Amino acid sequence: MAIATELVVLDSSDQAAAVCVVCGNDIAAGEGVTASYRGRVFRFKCPGCFSRFQADPEPFLAGKTGGCCGGAHDHSPASEWRCD
Asked: Is the pLDDT at 11 greater than 70, yes or no?
């Protein structure tokens, strides 16, 4: 587990709708948290998803999502995580 120290928070107000890299749920345009990491821009549904990515980004860089925000994904348990 490696903490993402080079994560830079960006302004989300001009961002288009997207899917959260952590929970896999939809993010409305201009909402959520947006950050740059290793030259890529990532969108997060809530501060909790952002914190989870920051604590251990590697699983999410590989395209895996966890369940949260009321969403359930067949490849990850939804019960362990909830958005703020």
From this structure: yes
